[in-house]
Amino acid sequence: MAAYNPETDGAKMSFAKDMSYTDYLALDPILGAQNMQSDAHDEMLFIVQHQTSELWMRLALHELTTARTKLIEGDFPSAFKMLTRVSRIFEQLNNAWDVLRTMTPSEYTAFRDDLGASSGFQSHQYRLIEFILGNRNRSMMKVHEHRPELHHMLGQELGERSLYHVALDALSAELNIEFSSETYLMDQPHEARTEVMDAWTQIYRDPGKYWTLYELAEKLVDLEDYFRRWRFNHVTTVERIIGFKRGTGGTSGVKYLRKMLEVELFPELWNMRGQL
């Protein structure tokens, strides 16, 4: 059997004057961005895992910000598609921990000192995701003060209603009720409120009547479900590799990450289930 010749099959083979795959995806700077600080074999794994996670978070932010706009506009089907995609993005982020966990404590120790004070705790994209979803804490911006443009970006987000705020606007409009101003704190983590839980309970008691809001609620629960798994897998991976050492960025490491497991993004949507 003759070898396959893509050129005779019509495939374009010359890209001297046309955009190629490498050009379109800007692969040269991307694949040249793995700047290892040591000669340890496993540092490449560590860098690639975190870089790809940041790329997935870049997409998550793209989807979340547009989903919020679509909810404000009343375009619920488009928002639902985007929220579903974000859940799948976090599924990919979860799978990445499985690869990183193939690195042993001894292998990580070989290059850990070369990280300096760098830490995932400093990821501005992760912080933006938290801010958009409603877990807001202005004091967390301090770590980004050395990058004015990032600090400004985070501050701008705190001036916008969170995705959950927008969902609550839709909920109050559907039921013709008004939530108190404490429900819409802009630079503090959202805390569970009885009035909001009662409103969501009304939706869940008659999903047929309130199907759009019912579906919105389940999309948010799906998203937080995947987000929680990501946090849990993060804790497990860190404990498996460094135990209870302090993080490179100065946090208490596993102890800090375990505290983050207690954070609820949409608490009323979880708490109301006991009322049904």
Would you spell out the secondary-structure blueprint of this structure?
Elements: H1 21-24, H2 27-31, H3 43-73, H4 76-100, H5 105-112, H6 124-133, H7 148-158, H8 163-175, H9 194-205, H10 211-242, H11 254-260, H12 267-271
Helix pairs in contact: 3-4, 3-6, 3-8, 4-10, 6-7, 8-10, 10-11
CATH architecture: Up-down Bundle
Q: How far do the termini sit from each other?
A: 67 Å
How would you sum up the major sheet? none
DSSP, total strands: 0
Mean pLDDT: 91
Strand proportion: under 5%
Query: Number of domains in the coordinates?
Result: 1
- Radius of gyration over all CA atoms, rounded: 22 Å
Q: Tell me the name of the CATH class.
A: Mainly Alpha
Structural class: mainly alpha
Describe this entry's structure for a reader.
This protein has helices at 21-24, 27-31, 43-73, 76-100, 105-112, 124-133, 148-158, 163-175, 194-205, 211-242, 254-260, 267-271. 59% of the residues lie in helices and 0% in strands. The model has no long low-confidence stretch (mean pLDDT 91). The chain is built from 12 helices and no strands. Helix 4 packs parallel to helix 10, helix 6 (124-133) packs parallel to helix 7 and helix 8 (163-175) packs antiparallel against helix 10 (211-242). The chain is mainly α. The N and C termini lie far apart (67 Å).
